[in-house]
Amino acid sequence: MIASIEILGLLAGGLTTASFVPQVYKTYKSKSADSLSLTMYAVFFVGIILWLIYGIYVNSIAMMVTNSITAVLSLMLIYFKLRFK
């Protein structure tokens, strides 16, 4: 059974992860990433990977799931930034 604090973590992580979906969709549809900062997303991606490693270390399902998804979404934005130059 998932502890109450993990449910809170899943909710918080789910909301913050979901906030990336509109940006990924907009960038994909417009084929423009001019307004995105490559440096910001590269640093953010590294931070998310470190949070994922931390989540694995402390065995937090919320951190593992949400940071995995956020890593993919931020990597997509990095790809779009490089692709749509």
TrEMBL record:
Any one annotated GO CC term: membrane
SMART domains named among the record's database cross-references? CTNS
Q: Please indicate if the UniProt record lists Repeat as a keyword.
A: no
**Source organism of this protein record:** Aureibaculum algae
- Give the domain of life: Bacteria
Topology relative to the lipid bilayer, per the entry, is:
Multi-pass membrane protein
Q: List GO molecular-function terms, semicolon-separated.
A: sugar transmembrane transporter activity
**Localization (cell):** Membrane
> Keywords on this record?
Membrane, Transmembrane, Transmembrane helix
Q: Where are the transmembrane segments?
A: 36-54, 60-80
Xref: InterPro entries: PQ-loop_rpt, SemiSWEET
Q: Does the keyword Iron-sulfur apply?
A: no
- The name this protein carries in UniProt is Glutathione synthetase
